[in-house]
Design brief:
4 copies of one chain form a homotetramer. In chain A, α4 runs antiparallel to α8. Chain A is globular, with a radius of gyration of 24 Å. In chain A, 49% of the residues lie in helices and 16% in strands. Chain A folds into 2 domains: 268 residues, Beta Barrel (Butyryl-CoA Dehydrogenase, subunit A, domain 2); 203 residues, Butyryl-CoA Dehydrogenase, subunit A, domain 3 (Up-down Bundle). In chain A, the strands form 4 sheets. Chain A has a 6-stranded mixed sheet. Chain A has a 4-stranded mixed sheet with strand order 5-8-9-12. Chain A is α+β, with helices and mostly antiparallel strands and 486 residues long. Chains A and C meet through α8 of A and α8 of C.
């Protein structure tokens, strides 16, 4: 397995195709250091002996021990561990761990590339391409990301109906040495910190839309790719440093007539499989979300409980209600993902019913993953409100850090920030600053948007839920009980 | 295993201590026939070969095959099956299956009677009493119920502070042949249909409250017991009979200086164990609820979906939203119970931390059972609103059944009730009548109250959740991340 | 003004066209006595000198003092008083006052009949017909009702697209002496207690739908009209009589080739005015609702507060929260109606903008009436939940009244129902019985459906709100502030 | 009336007692320019002839025309105009207008200083002091602010129980030339842009707490006052300038043994009037909130509607639902304030019932103002969620402005941001940037906190509502209807 040092060294060697604020920048530009630190942690924690069982796995391809973020799930236990690893790391880092997109895409493509070959009577070699890619990915312990979300143009129109057909990434030419693609992917999280970008379609496709049914993997600095990056990180502190300063960075990734060599292509024209691939990535990713969201919400729980203690209102009954509400979201989300793992299988719902699919990759149950992700997303802003509620207005009006350390104003602020006299002024200050970062910063705002939309907005889960749940069986139950005979 | 015929025959032989509407009545009084039918079904379904795995178990006491409603859970698998059996039967019967209180009390008492002996250095024989009782219970395939809820008097006062100490059932005398108790238990569901009443405390008790720490089992017709019963059943139909007419019946059970023989006593004065027994019954019962409530909500789902189809609005997006909302409640509740089974063990949270308790009875995880029960309860009336929403006003203003079958008015009603022309008028009528039963009947109203309060109101679950969740661990996480050092 | 005695005497003289439960019944059948009592109260209270200002008005047609329920609003003050009169009476009677449909229809028709004549260049005499009708209505102090809701068949189809064109009431023949109509109106509240039925369309109509654009008034016992009635009333008590036993009764009113004499016709074929009439009745009625719903919710408030006092939890903070929530619904609903009155005018929103309409009838502001009605309806089932929450399970399991008065069981029930020792057992019993009537009776269930759907379901108000609000003006504000230039 | 130029010139002359980020700064420091622009607008708009009726008033003290922000309300009409002026200005500026605290404090003090003198049998001259102050305030067209919120220390303890008695601002010495006070006020909005700071107590006080019952006014740069300011403003744009760049600035205001001359003291030791003054300021300010919050929510409405149009989903039914939800909050809040004005009077609820108070100042109805403020606050974060929902993830991942104007990346971003092809890329960009400012900036975060807590958090309104509503009258109604006789 790689070390984080080698990972960062690798980033530095890549082509300079990253843009921030109108300039070309290095991959280790200081605005992205937080995101690099976060990804580095996925190497560091996996290397600790106490995390071996949770964070490493034995590759079913090579038989070698690998970082679990490179693993193709082979069992219920693998799914449980992926959920738990995600939760554990997010707890430690206090935020999104960012390496889940890679593992989720890797697993989704394993199934669909295999099915595509089968559908094509083995006239294609997508799965062989995939295997070659996956073996290297595991061996080199790569960081992947997933470029799924097309920019989508007019939301009331399908891909082929757009004024500009490139508004969904598409094949523009098939050549002997590869396929040429054009388009852009939004919200391409951590692409600027990734070795490889896995590209998948974003929705179901119609027969006219074969050119939009394309999946492949390319290094993040490949010819023709430009990443326009929006970094996000907590305001760096001058005095009150925090132990771990993480961050995120989302790329708006442009594919400007990019040539993808054939051996990196996993789907190319099979419109019937565009939707299933989109759905499968979403499913694996929503499963990840049932690990990360509980962790993020646990932090909110801890913040609310600690603030209540500092304010002297820990025993108030409205605090207990709020804590209970938050715990419910945490553990219902987790339980849904857990049950989704346990009810997982190598089958998938298709228009022909539940069918065996893929080369043995273990797929979590879609209903449970979706209900889990949905309740988490629906509560994101409500949790912000609870934070604001318990803290009062100070997160918004908290004087700057420097005022707390200036000799004139420090005595005033330390005197007047005091609540519980047992707690030092610095600790009270630190807690309010953490609230301010969450509630009143660009980073906190982006995190809330991520809690709502990351991995699919609640409305997407609701569509998935109602589309896949056996509602007819429940109508039959009602008919039987009501004496309705058709 | 008993047949339902023998069960009913047994009821008929019992002493006539049942009161309804100011009169002494038989146990098979027609107002309670629905409840008897429901309980009979627990025998009939268990006898069907196709249900053997789900509905029977092998007793760890006798090694015999027994009805699972008499089983002491020995494993995670037993807990899964209890949840699934409950869901399955409630689906089939279209309502509460009513035999869960017995199994839940049986399991709770198994643990606490054992712990009481241990605490008393085996100077007591509660667990031997229990074993003797449980063996007979299994062998004779008895129906049990649980008398837990004391009438409680002034809610702001503890048991020993009440103006009348009997407002919580208590020991009034200890005699050589047994213990004399006095008090009343409210909401004693199906007691009039039960062979045995298991009595447990309802809350944590203080050292002054040893006399309120009492648990025992008695036949439902025992000397000194009077049951004042409030039956509830759907309005019986004259023309549009439904296949299964179930019902419920709750006893207000009076214990008027009742002598409990010593060999039927499971706890007697150990105030420290009153709370744990109350909590354990609640826990097993909330676990049951994660089976029954999904089933009840599945019926609501089917009703909404069928009504939307009949009204011609199945494709409306607000219908999809409502279906998704309902499915979320169903499957989050189920997933919570499922995870509660899987994370179950023979341990229990005590003031001294998580400890091994009882004789091997498998106890589900309390956090998951509580969050599952809580989300179900909180949505009860919202589901009623969704039903009312999709149906419009007709459930409230639907003419009487007789008007649909009278020669003058039938043509009018059959003409004007028509929505989807593919569906017969009778079926449309049947569906609206089912809605009317749910929304506008005393039975439906009682069912909604049951969905809110049965097995413990949401506020009780919230107390359990915040009391048992490791909030301190989350505060520590926050401190670590925020750089707060104590 | 009429006395209630004369009103009831008048009902008894009407043709026996009322059907209940497969039989033809008298208008004063005991199942409808509660509804008659309620309507009688509108006469009795108006006759009391202390209510003169609130409940009577001076007719702008005759100059005579009339019952305000017969008045055509001439000013903001009239609108305020109509709202306040409705609230006052509902408080006194503990439920729906039932005479508002008549006044609301009377006002709506005043405007649209006038506009129809204008649109027809005075080739029609709808407004003259109306004036003649209204003068008699006021002079004879009649009770009116409004038959608006067509049965509507397939909800995804328009009136002229239905398999059976009668699923919306329509003109089937125009004759020299009148117009022949056929169809049925559902939810025709108090039609069996009304002297006159005012009939209006239920939705906007297309040019093909002139035959569905018809409005008229007929006596409730007119040739060809059959009313199939679903009465609803609280269970009558045997021992614990309550001071006022009201009730409701909804007719499913059949118009079987009914000849409407020309001088009773107010609209006949003008499809452009079908929608405005439907909307105007709804608007006046939603304005009424901002009077009645606050009153009904005040009763819920009182019940919750009293129960909390009886249970000994009046000081609990969750009780305060619930009371505050309920008060918010009460007073936001009232404030919306109040503002709707104050911002009312003789103008109406039309496709050509806000226009002066009608003969001077004062019309409340549609946005405020709709937001007020909507928040009330959306909270209906939540209020039921609060009632259930504060009362616990007893409303569902309360023994029958007879058990409380039987010599054997009375001592038990009086002993064990005690909460606050300062309150008599009877009063505690009475309060729980009131809760049981609200939560667990067919009457309470129908009332909840009425709170949701009566006067238009929340979805109807939302359509009205978004259709009439000046959203474009707010988009312009945003464009200005964001520097967006079209 | 003053011009904005003179107002700003005045600020520049003040003593430099403003601290930001560890430094002493000028009052026109660029970080506070936005706030100054906002306040300047209150002068500029009042000077426009078309706003004369709305934004100016005739002083009842001098008979002169004054800026309405300096007026003491003399009538219902004044209250209506204050609400409407606030709404109008907030619409124009796209945010908080910031001059309401001054007018609200001015009105509150008018009543309480008068009552204090009365209570003291005119041995004090608070009201004379007040009149002198108010006359100058109006004549010089001053900007006032209100320092109300004490830092409050341990929330479970009263002022006199705090470890440090200064945690609530208090009198430390009474001298011949004035009273010396010490303490700090948090969330002291616009104090750094104000001419005068009006100081009031923050809560009800007990007899031991006379020293905390103090009210006065001082210039913002008075000896002993230090303001530690936290400014907030939208990120300034480099290319896409917006027409009006406003801002806010909150002072943490320190009173370090400040001598208040007697003629500036309005309350000094009368503990009984501390609470009423706190409540009255809150009441006037919540009334203001029913003007500003509708305006802010109108902007959210416009943003949602415009985004839906740009995305091509304006017709989706979930958009209509969201718009309706938002409109309901806008207009229910407005209607509550409107009704609060109309039901206003010169009376106030006291422990002795509703009593005539003050010198004629018109006080809005407290119930309506509180329910209006409360519904607005409770929906603040829900509105943020709706914004995030309709926009998708782009507000969080939007590339920096410079990338949109860089020659390499501009073509990419302009191509791929396109949704509706009729709308220019720049306009789409502008709209997303506005969303980003609202959802993902420190300014937007502070605004959301302000929408929740500004003018009092929902929990404060609920306490006010339940404390002042006549719940007993509703209990009596229930008793009457239920036949309960005490």
């Amino acid at each position: 397995m790689r070390t984080s040092e080698k990972y960062v060294k690798g980033l530095r060697k890549m082509r300079r195709n990253i843009r921030i604020g109108g300039e070309t920048v290095d991959r280790d530009d200081e605005r992205m250091i937080g995101a690099i630190r976060t990804l580095s942690a996925t190497f560091d924690y996996a290397a600790m002996p106490e995390n071996e069982e949770l964070m490493t796995a034995t590759s079913h391809l090579s038989g070698e021990k690998i970082n679990r973020f490179c693993h193709i799930h082979q069992s219920t236990d693998d799914l449980h561990k992926k959920q738990d690893m995600t939760r554990f790391l997010c707890q430690q880092l206090g935020g999104c761990v960012q390496r889940c997109m890679g593992i989720d895409a890797l697993n989704a493509v394993s199934v669909v590339s295999y099915e595509a070959d089968k559908m094509n009577n083995n006239q294609t070699e997508y799965y062989q391409n995939y295997l070659k890619f996956a073996e290297r990915f595991q061996k080199e312990d790569l960081v992947g990301c997933c470029a799924q979300t097309d920019v989508k143009g007019d939301r009331s129109k399908r891909p082929h109906q757009q004024a500009d057909p490139d508004l969904y990434l598409r094949i523009v030419e098939r050549k002997s040495d590869g396929v040429v693609v054009r388009g852009a992917k939004a919200h391409n999280s951590e692409a600027a910190q990734a070795d490889e970008i896995l590209v998948t379609p974003t929705r179901f496709l119609t027969p006219e839309e074969g050119d939009w049914a394309v999946a492949f993997a390319l290094p993040g600095d490949w010819e023709g790719i430009t990443q326009i990056v929006r970094p996000a990180a907590a305001r760096s502190r001058k005095y009150l440093k925090i132990p771990f300063e993480g961050g995120m960075a989302d790329s708006f990734t442009i594919f400007d007539n990019v040539l993808v060599p054939w051996d990196r292509v996993f789907l190319c024209g099979e419109h019937l499989l565009g939707g299933p691939l989109a759905l499968l990535f979403a499913l694996f990713h929503r499963h990840s979300y049932t690990g990360c969201k509980p962790a993020l919400t646990e932090l909110i729980l801890g913040m609310v409980a600690l603030m209540a203690e500092y304010q002297g209102i820990a025993q108030a009954s409205h605090i207990r209600d709020k804590l209970a509400e938050i715990i419910m979201v945490i553990e219902l989300t987790y339980a849904a993902g857990y049950t989704g793992s346990d009810k997982g299988s190598t089958k998938m719902m298709t228009p022909m019913g539940l069918q065996e699919v893929g080369p043995g990759t273990h797929i979590p149950d879609p209903i449970y993953c979706n209900v889990g992700r949905c309740i988490a997303g629906e509560n994101a802003y409500h949790e912000m409100m609870i934070l604001a509620d318990v803290a009062g207005g100070l997160p918004a009006t908290l004087p700057y850090e420097e005022d707390f350390f200036d000799e004139t104003t420090r005595p005033y602020l330390e005197k007047y920030i005091m609540r519980n006299p047992e707690i030092s002024a610095e600790n009270q200050h630190r807690l309010f600053r953490a609230f301010s970062d969450m509630l009143c910063s660009s980073y906190g705002g982006a995190a809330a948007v991520g809690m709502l939309h990351g991995g699919g907005s609640p409305i997407m889960e609701k569509i998935a839920i109602t589309g896949q749940y056996d509602i007819e069986a429940r109508k039959k139950l009602v008919k039987k009980l009501a004496g309705i005979k058709d």
